[in-house]
Amino acid sequence: MLNRSQFLTVISRLAVLTTVLLCGIGCADRAPGVIRFGLATAPVTFDPRLATDATSYRIGRLLYQSLVDFNASHRPVPSLARWEQPGPRHYRFYLDPGQTFHNGSDLTSADVVATYESVLNPETVSPHRGSLSNVRAINAVGPLIVDFTLHEPDPLFPGLLVIGIMPEDTLGAGTDTSGLPVGSGPFELAAVPTETRIQLRRRSDGQLIEFVTVRDATVRALKLVHGEIDLTQGSMTPELVDWLDARDEITAVHRPGTTFTYLGFNLDDRAVGDPRIRRAISLALDRETLTRHMFGGRARLAQAIFSPTHWAGHPDLEPIGHDPVEARRILEGLGYDADHPLSLAYKTSSDHFRLRVATTIQDQLAAVGIAVAISSYDWGTFYADIKSGRFQMYSLSWVGLKQPDIFRYAFHSASVPPAGANRGRYRAQNVDAMIEAAEASVELEERAALYADIQAQLLEDLPYVPLWYEDNILIRRDSITDYDTGLDGYYDALANIRRTTGS
User: How many CB atoms lie within 10 A of CB 16?
Assistant: First the structure.
């Protein structure tokens, strides 16, 4: 493996050698005035009812508006609508007047009802249906007024209404919503998307934003250098980030983030379904070394899905230590040793940085006698395999988590895909009971205590081995202004982005 100095030398030489080639391929076809955003992975869907991957959700926020959003303190705030609570099981939402879809039609209560009834319809197979299982009825009581009636009181209910609203006439039986989305967000689709390009038009002034999928981080970096893309976020090695930041025309910005990265397991598997195996794996991992060398310090160790500062987090979880001696002792007690190693299969995406992380994890597990075979796939194939349970061990990240409904969505026994995102088939009656008790409680302090207990139990059971919270890395050409990234890594600031004249 190349050391840091060798790596930077290779990149610098590549930059020189590919100048003519890259410009010959990309510079000539660049439309003037278009701001290009480099993506590591393409969105899986434009349908907000089905979106679960980070890129789909982030782009969806540009195309659609939701009833509710969150402030910097992770508290729900009005977006399309303000609300009141006439009764413990009754929420009334008042839509802002004058909202229109991209096709010019008015956004009304009928669209809200149609969107959420579609999510709740089992035939839609929305992974968000489980989070809304407490909804008993949705009614339009006026052109701009919607009532949600619940089975049980829920003081956090408004925070669940973050799915983008779609026009009622696009949600009929047999309607295909995957190609040309119609929303009411600040951007609309400007052209039919391809596998590698998505062009959006800003409704306020017509500014075009083109998302270009460039899976290879090095190629993405070189395209930044040569002006073929203007900015990119995340999925860059520390060496590439530092190399780009050292260039006069490029700036790298990193912000503390809430992106939670974890090692996941298929608990139906004979080997990793054993909690002792998962404990040995957690002890074998030197997460501090991983964050220091793989992220250049741009990540913080995680013990749970929420950070300790989140209101639903746990401030006092005992950190997972690095104890390879204990890991070997556990494995030996299960009959594994140097002559009979434990063999595991690890799936990851073909992104080079994620492959480097997987390879480092492979090396650390090998040190305690676990032989790991890594398989990497393009994002679409990899993600489909994870959702379908075709894995033994994998790594992924949760992005932009705000609400504790993630516990039902990802860990409740009833949330195995397609009903939710319990991809590891984790089944624990005590955790199910705590999730249900938290959802039934109307006291926020009681809920917070239950969520803390859930996270303590998850750290004991280890359906995930928590790894770290990744910083959000933004790399942009200096001609780009009025754009930054926050805790969640959303692309919302594209509503204000500018490129200076003459660049």
Answer: 8
